[in-house]
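Entry for adenosine-5'-diphosphate complex. Fields follow.
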Amino acid sequence: MVERVKTGIPGLNKLMQGGLVKNSVILLSGGTGTGKTIFGLQFLFNGAKDFNEKGIYLSLEESEEGLKADVEDMGLDFNEVSKKVKFIYMPPYGTTNFLSPLKDQIEKFKPKRVVIDSLTALVMPLEDNFERKKEIFNLIKILKRLNCTAILTSEVPSESNISSDSTGRFSKFGIEEFLCDSVIVLHYAGIGGESDRAIRVVKMRQTNHVRGPVSMAIGKLGISVLKTKY
Ligand SMILES: Nc1ncnc2c1ncn2[C@@H]1O[C@H](COP(=O)(O)OP(=O)(O)O)[C@@H](O)[C@H]1O
Ligand SMILES: [Mg+2]
């Protein structure tokens, strides 16, 4: 029996047999403004509030205050779960030595959920793509050993349209999607219908998931998957 972790995104769990695979590493990919950061925050907030699970949010883009403010109006008040969710801000281009400090933090705080936003920015200061790929490989290996479910966001160039068989890249360096257990892509525009946004589970190990894009919305309560046919 595969243990599942609820995503905190209404309507999403049922596309993936009940949730993410516990202790797996998920690549959350999409262009800018597609909802990756909100997704990550919802995932941690939900874990803390509804399941009493601790979370670490490693941010390379927005400050802790900025992140909290982004979702404050969506019913996610991180002050309610301040003991359970730890934000770590790491300036982009700040350090090339992030693996062991991050590992220490996770070993000390023992979160069940981890979000790294973004993996792309985390490895950017490394010298070249060889080094970046090596560190991504090491990071994913470490996360898999640490008994947490980790979402790594990946910034990809915005796409013009989307269809269920659209391919394209899911990551900056081209290896992230192979190393991660799951790949979820957020899209905007293109499929029409009820929403101009969509979410697609591209791969998820041990899971019979819905494969095509499914309409989603970002609204007053954050991200939700819309009840459409899929
Ligand atoms: N209150 C809101 N209602 C509807 N959409 C919103 C709201 N707040 C943010 N958004 C949408 O979410 C986007 C930001 O999502 P974010 O998670 O920061 O994207 P990413 O991290 O992928 O760049 C905004 O560009 C906007 O389109
Ligand atoms: Mg973001």
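NOTE: Residues 30, 32-38, 73, 218-219 surround adenosine-5'-diphosphate (ligand 1) (CB under 6 Å).
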